[in-house]
User: What shape does this take?
Amino acid sequence: MLPLQLKKLYRKLYWLPKDLRWKIQLRGIDELVHFGDRGIGDDLLCTAVLHEMHKRGRAKVAMMTNWPELFENLPSPAKVIPWDYGALHCIERAGIKTWRPTYAKVAEESPLRFSFAPGHLIEAMCRSVGIEGDVENRPHVWLTDTEKGKWSSLQQSLVVQTSRANPRFALPNKEWYPARWHKLGALLRKFTRVVQVGSKEDPLLEGADDLRGSTSLRDVAAILWNARLFLGLEGFLMHLARAVDTRAVIIFGGYIHPSCSGYPENSNLFTELACSPCGYPVHCDFDRECMKRILPEDVLAAVVEAWEMPRLTKRA
Assistant: This one.
């Protein structure tokens, strides 16, 4: 066996080219933010963290992500690099502080449940990277005039997503019922033009303009920017709608409270029960009673009410 000192020297020489490559690539960067190889919604929430860091003079920040298009045109981060778990140690050895913002952990009493930090997710994420004081609880996406103009014909539409199912990070307790979406679709068609976005596997609303699986991420952002209202579930598109200043009606059920992940500008359909919010993404002892109590007529009423509210002030 090699002596310990030789082993250390071997490891140093092995990593030296990689360390130098990252040190050169991130020249001028003091900090790096990443959320790991997780869902796209978490990376979108990181735009809020980067915004608050930039406001406090922490401008020499890079973002490591699988979704670089989320960060186009934003004043921060200073640099965007592809997600690469193996690079994190190299980056830290280059003297760059790495941050992974957090807002939840597995509950001590049950490995099936998440325990959320106090306050809004964005507030918790900001605290976890050393940000003190008040923060703006909203993500950020900046679109060009060309991107917005491409979908200007949808300015008086209702944009809908019927599922946020993700095969990698399934959260079935956030899902509403396909049969109820079908019934709601018939009601919505009598009310306004409906445009459906999301995955090709999402339940289709009959009569909707079907854009499922046929748009880029920035296209969806531009569609939401133009829309009168978004209707969907708690998750990424809820955050994306807020990032582009579009009101929303969100079906929460009882997994997480709207004060934790939602936005006060929205109509948030949350069911108050003794067991809610539960933090259980899959397990439920009550046959998802929180979702059962949200009826198509309830959702339609919320859409009609939100439709009459003034539009949020759109950013340039």
